[in-house]
Please model this.
Amino acid sequence: MKRSTVRGFGLACLVIGILYTGMDRFSHTESESKEIANYEEKITQLESQLKVAKQQLQELENQSSSNSTETQDEPEVNNAPSETTTSTQQENVVEDILYIYSGLTPYEVSKKLEDMGIIKNAVEMELFLAQPEYARSIQKGQFKVNSTMTIEEIANLITGKQNS
Model:
């Protein structure tokens, strides 16, 4: 074979490699923009679910407060049960170890925390973790969490951020 043929073949391979690299970059950009759009749509849906849940919670609190005002009219016979209730509430702190492995989504982390009894509302935690500063920095590992921690404290713990 002649040198010019080998050089031409090598140059053709180089051009094809550059074209494939360029096509790969452009195809990722389109898929990432679709993924971001889907992610933003899911966040919007979760925010609306959170609003509905908060409204329901507020209605329940209003009902319970109206019920408690009705029961306050009746005289209390014994104060001892309220003291035991407070001490049992302090004893009901749930502590557990959260295991996070590679590829775990904010939804899965939130669901694990809710299943362990650490948090009461997985949707609220998922929305908090969906924020870009938290979603991109969730670390894998073991984290000791308890039910007295706030959502922000848990998020800071699993992302390695300092408490502000």
About this structure: The beta strands are 95-100, 141-146. The first helix runs from residue 3 to 72.
